[in-house]
User: What shape does this take?
Amino acid sequence: MPPSALSAPRTGHVGLNVTDLDRSLAFYRDVIGFELIGEGKEEGRRFAFLGHAGALTLTLWQQAGAPYEGGRAGLHHLAFEVGTIDEVRAYERELRAYGVEFAYDGVVPHGEGAASGGIFFHDPDGTRLEICAPAGAESASAPVAAAPTCGFF
Assistant: This one.
């Protein structure tokens, strides 16, 4: 069957290489709120499956020897969507209490005048992350008017 006859694939889950599985697992489980679905503890083959209600969202692989580098080909950033801007703000409070530094101050729209928006920050290995909502950011100012906020410009 030719690809044009198939439905476009959806993102299933994302796998991230991390330098310290215990540290990253604590961050994604305790701060972001993912549930631990399963894990591999064999030395040299450590991983953690994370998600909600048994559905896999994120796999952490302890395979990295160095932190994330945004200038290399590959993942630009990873966005997690929640239902409302109020939920985004609640995550912002939790992340600030955890000591996370943000790319922008507060909730920002995805572009000037956009309804969608979120917060932009980094995980313990420097991977760029976003928590966003589809509406509610209309009154906020975009930090870079000529580029998408999610561009981490």
Remarks:
- The chain has a mean pLDDT of 91.
- The helical segments are 21-31, 85-98.
- The longest helix spans residues 85-98.
